[in-house]
Automatic annotation (TrEMBL):
Domain Methyltransferase: from-to ranges: 57-147
Lineage: Bacteria, Pseudomonadati, Pseudomonadota, Alphaproteobacteria, Hyphomicrobiales
Protein name: Class I SAM-dependent methyltransferase
Keyword field: Methyltransferase, Transferase
Entries under CDD domains matching the protein: AdoMet_MTases (cd02440)
Organism: Mesorhizobium erdmanii
GO BP annotations listed: methylation
GO terms assigned for molecular function: methyltransferase activity
Length: 234
């Protein structure tokens, strides 16, 4: 995530993020659990690995889910939003994972390129980055810090929201299912339409990955606009 994109994740947004993310993404925990399983299946159960967690702020589910499965793995958690990184590190501390997790307040480009990681995650970030260039930049920065053939877990919304009115309507019903009033739903959907810029399709996601130096993308999870993929550093 860029510094500019991080500005909207102020202390008030950080405080509500954990609840809101689980409503907005049906299957939130399942996606993170499957991401952990995909990494373990790729790198080998019981192996040692150092994992780059880009855009780590918030619930810290990337770290917690993977760490529960693989006790020998360590993490570098990067986020440009201090409130969001603080929230993530509080969840990591509560899970007893502080010694295995290095927090970095900043962006992926701040990390050295001569200490490559065995794997990386970028979950719930790409659709918050405005424009093609910002998306391409963060994927390229991650690729530059991975070993050859290292896996990347990429997850986030794709499709132009307004192009899928039925899924938008279903999204509204999910908010209603969790107690939101019609007025609140209208506000939430309005914010989504104005504040996010997802890739326009899965093909667009694959093109971004290829341009950044990743190969063999494979989708392993989907929920309305959300998709999750694994790809490998070429």
């Amino acid at each position: 995530m860029s510094i500019d994109a991080a500005a909207k994740f102020d202390p008030s947004r950080a405080a509500e993020y954990e609840t809101q993310s689980r409503i907005a993404l049906a299957g939130y925990d399942a996606c993170h659990e499957l991401a952990a399983c995909m990494l373990a299946a790729t790198l080998g159960a019981g192996s040692s690995a150092r994992i780059l967690v880009a855009g780590a702020g918030g619930t810290a589910r990337e770290v917690i889910s993977v760490a529960r499965l693989e006790p020998s793995w360590s993490f570098v958690a990067v986020d440009p939003s201090k409130p969001m990184l603080d929230l993530a590190m509080s969840r990591i501390a509560a899970a007893g994972l502080t010694e295995r997790t290095e927090p970095v307040l900043g962006v992926v480009a701040d990390l050295p390129e001569d200490q490559p990681f065995e794997a990386a995650t970028l979950i719930g970030v790409l659709h918050h980055l405005p424009g093609h260039e910002a998306k391409q930049t963060i994927l390229g920065d991650i690729a530059a810090r991975l070993k050859t053939d290292a896996p990347l877990i990429l997850a986030g919304n794709h499709h132009a929201y307004a192009s899928q009115p039925l899924m938008m309507a279903a999204w509204a019903q999910r908010w209603r299912m969790h107690g939101a009033t019609p007025a609140e739903i209208e506000i939430k959907l309005g914010k989504i339409l104005q504040a996010a810029d997802p890739p326009q399709s899965e093909a667009a996601v694959f093109a971004l990955l290829a341009a950044a130096g990743f190969k063999k993308p494979l989708r392993f999870f989907s929920s309305l606009f959300w998709g999750a993929w694994i790809a490998f550093r070429a």
